Amino acid sequence: VTDEGIEFKIVLIGEAYVGKTSVFNRYTKDDFHKNYEHSTNVGIGKVSHKLQNTRYQHSKVVIWDPPLLDSYDDRILFYRDIDAAIVVVDLTNEDSISFAGAWKQDVIDNATQAKIPSRRITDNYNNAHNECIPIPKDQFPVHLLGTKYDLVTEYGQNAKSSKTMTDFDKCAEQFGFTGSAIVSSKDNDKSIHNTLQQIIEQLVDMKVRDDRKKLSFVSAAHVDAAIPLQTDEQQPKISLERTGIEELDEMLTSCNPYISKAVKTSNTLPVAKTCFAHACHEAMLTEYKNESIIECVMQLKNKLGNIDDQDPIQVVEDGGFLQLVVTNSKNMDKLTKSVLKVFYDEVVASCKEILETCPGVETFLMDVDGRIVAESRNIWQLAILHSKKTEEVKAAQDTIERNRRQIAKAQMLARTSLQLVDKTYQEVKDGLEMPWETHGKNNKMRNAGMF
After folding, report:
1. DSSP assignment of 122-168, as one string?
2. Which of 189, 183, 256, 241 has the alpha carbon at shortest distance from 396?
3. Res 66 pLDDT > 50
4. Helices (H), 283-347
5. Which residues pair with 11 in a beta bridge?
6. CA-CA distance, 36 to 186, in Å (whole number)?
7. pLDDT at res. 190
8. Please, which pLDDT band fits residue 54 given cuts at 50, 70 and 90?
9. Which of 181, 257, 252, 264 has its CA nearest to residue 404?
10. Residues 290, 137: contact at Cβ < 8 Å?
């Protein structure tokens, strides 16, 4: 373990008046201001966290709260060198939810990173002339955060509040946000801190995997060197809230390990693809460390060469995914072997884990959710059986709805992971089907003597 901290930049974005500054103040200062003032200046706050990790002991989060980003140039500056973005919406405002997808697309399209990054995030912001390159769309998480949940509960379960909550859940699924959460900046219930902590854990996991890949290229003797990742026992455990009604709590408890599996597997493949892209760059197969998997596979094929019109790499089906079989090992040096090892150990392993896990997760959660709905119809009879008061029953009903949203999100994560496996499968095949030795960037690297 090293005591050198890691620093992440997270930016809050969204429509005006949705509560971005209130989220910023609650997270950085643990404070809430009742009298709202429209933000005209950028807020930058730093929060340190202790980590239970085999590689790092603490992290520093630099969270940015920019004013409304109407100017394209402003957005480019604030989106530079970000590690994650949070799209903030107002749960009492349907319009703010409807614009969430556009904000997500905006940050994905315009996020960049310095080609020669500084150790300090603010250095890259201040150096406007530092050459930047786009951040690949799948290399940083974008979360959806619904604020003012205290107002939703204050209004009660009326038609309007029910619709906005439904719209929020649909938005998270439709636009493929990495994760979503509902919070209250007014209530000091730790919901904002817990949400940011989950994002940080994901970023740390991505960083650890990146370090693991880098160590594998130090020398041939260290090809197998790796930083141990979190074991299943170290993974954060998901626990749905208890209702106090035994029959319902038994079903809810049975969902916990399946939800944990859905959350865990949702992060593995994006990180694995990033590891593979970085490995290809370290082996000088690609010009940038964030190339697409199509580009990486194509340049790997080009590196191995084409002899007697035979493709140097062929694919074979393996557990629902595929393996790369090298038919021409003449040009296979130690770095290329390491690249293939990362593909097998990270990409293939992640895809096979998803294929083995997610269909069962989705089916189980769908079945239990149906049984929860059926059992909830008898909640008043159950309340009499367990001597529950009216307010306790109403609290249990609210808990059931919150838990059902968590179950639905886990099902969405499982489906999204399976879709990503299908996409990755096609990307690998597309890379192998690209014309051999025709790509300009790769030829320039070869002509420069890099191969």
Report:
1. HHHHH-TTS-EEEPPTTSS-EEEEEE-HHHHHHH-S-HHHHHHHHHH
2. 241
3. yes
4. 293-304, 334-342
5. 64, 85
6. 12
7. 82
8. very low
9. 252
10. no
The DSSP code for 85 is: E
Higher-confidence position of 306 and 223:
306
Q: Could you give the 3-state DSSP secondary structure of residue 181?
A: strand
Q: How many CB atoms lie within 10 A of CB 5?
A: 13
- Find the length of the chain: 451
Cα distances (Å, whole numbers) of residue 334 to 149, 283, 349, 432: 55, 9, 21, 21
Whether residue 275 is predicted with pLDDT greater than 60 in this model: the reply is yes
pTM of the model: 0.50
- The pair of structure tokens assigned to 6 is 């890691």
Rounded Cα–Cα distance for residues 327 and 202 (Å):
37
Q: Is the dihedral of CA 347, 348, 349, 351 positive or negative?
A: positive
Cβ-Cβ contacts under 8 Å for 247 (sequence gap 6 or more) = 375, 382
Instruction: State whether residue 329 is helix, strand or coil.
Output: coil
What pLDDT score was predicted for residue 85? 93
Instruction: Of 16-30, 41-55, 261-275, give the lowest mean pLDDT range.
Output: 41-55
Tell me what pLDDT residue 39 has.
60
Contact 56, 72 (CB under 8 A): no
Residue 143 is given by DSSP the state E
Residue 112 has pLDDT above 70, yes or no: yes
> Which pair of tokens denotes residue 298?
């194509």
Pairing of strands 112-114, 132-134: antiparallel
Give how far the C-alpha of residue 142 lies from the chain's centroid of Cα atoms, to the nearest Å: 7
Encode pLDDT of 133-190 as tens digits: 777 766 678 999 999 888 877 655 554 566 788 889 889 888 888 889 998 888 877 8
CA 111 – CA 360 distance, rounded (Å): 36
Give residue 69's Cα distance to chain centre: 23
Name the residue type at position 420: L
pLDDT digits (tens, 9 = 90+) for 205-232: 777 666 554 444 433 333 333 333 344 4
Helix%, strand%, coil% for the chain, nearest 5: 55, 15, 30
Residue type, 365: L
Nearest to 311 by CA among 431, 421, 440: 431
Rounded Cα gap, residues 97 and 247, in angstroms: 35
Report the chain's C-alpha Rg in angstroms. 24
